[in-house]
Amino acid sequence: MEPNISIGVLGALYCPSAGIVSPYEYCIALAENAIMNGVRLLLEHKVTAINKLSLTPGGEERFTLETKKGTSISAKRVINCAGLYADELAGFVHDRNFYIRARKGDYIVLDKEEGARINHVLFQAPTEKWGKGILVSPTARGNLLLGPSAIIQDSKEATDTDTHELAYVVWAARRTMPHLDTTKSLTSYAGLRSRSNVHDFIIEESRISPGFFNVAGIESPGLTASPAIALEVVNLLKTSGLLLEKKSSEEFNRLRKHPVNFSANKLESVKNSVDGKEKTIICKCENITEAEINRALNSGIEIRCTDSIKWRTRAGMGWCQGARCRPLVAEMIAAKLGNGVRMQDVPKNMPSKEAPVRESRNFLSKL
């Protein structure tokens, strides 16, 4: 099953039903499908205040959310799924029954040649400090993923990678797969997970402010549990007296088609295509075509930086990490935005968020 794992591994628990999903592709797909079905998505609308009052004497109380954009949103119910900031959002309605701290995890991504050497997600035995431990796993698109570390930190913003944490990740990963070739490293990154003082999922209506629902502290396996969590929230809303009307199968569009063709015979399809845009490859590392990037640009959410295309199509995720294709992608984004936007005006990531510091590929190759 796994010929490349360490001879020191004495045994394992095998879970044949385990699967692999791309977390960011999953979230993007859910958002785009929601928009297709009528959801209004407000980006960069940070909530600055929440008030609860009755519009008429003795009438039903409603929440009013104020945002930094000056938008006021009225709602009968509010679902607080603000991740790291869920405790702060709950504080706006005077609910301070939990708090959230950031738990940082450093990861290393290696190329697909390394990813082909294993077949399953390989976890080590869990520990108190490192949680489920350092995993060695193929990704949904064939790379190899190592990590994460698990360090509690005060900042909810800092996602810089750490040399000591990355060194530990490689050392621990080699206990599972001793012949890892770190010269095949593509990049490193760090993510922040919300860890509550409750140390369990918080899925409940606020006892302080009825109608306000906290969905917070969702640690692993939160991604796997997310469909079940959604159903639980629906049940809580119904129990609270909110009338929900389920759309018919004719009204609800379940299908969100991925903009990229990931089939094994893709290059043959590109070669035989009569569409010039389907034949034009923009990202040569990942074989992403102009047509695929155009489909991502027209997916319902305005795209203003090249990283947004990277997450949707993988253009820029290969060996050159976007050195060759990023200018071409920026040019396409500028053309889509119009209004005089130039290629050089399109950033790699949104300027509202400071780019994290990551270790160089040269550093990773020496671990």
Summed over residues and divided by their number, the pLDDT gives a mean of 94
What's the overall geometry? globular
Order of secondary-structure elements: HEEEEHEHEEEHEEEHHHEEHHHH
Please describe the biggest sheet, giving its number of strands, its sense, and whether it closes into a barrel. 5 strands, antiparallel
| CA gyration radius, whole angstroms | 23 Å
Structural class: alpha+beta
Low-confidence stretches: none
CATH topology of the largest domain: FAD/NAD(P)-binding domain
Count of spatially separate domains: 3
CATH superfamily of the largest domain: FAD/NAD(P)-binding domain
- Beta content comes to 15-25%
Terminal Cα separation, in Å?
A: 27 Å
Would you count the extended β strands for me?
13
Helical stretch count?
11
CATH class division of the largest domain: Alpha Beta
The proportion of residues forming helix, as a percent range, comes to 25-40%
Q: What is the name of the CATH architecture of the largest domain?
A: 3-Layer(bba) Sandwich
Domain FAD dependent oxidoreductase: 2-235
Organism: Aplanochytrium stocchinoi
Region (Disordered): 346-367
Protein name: FAD dependent oxidoreductase domain-containing protein
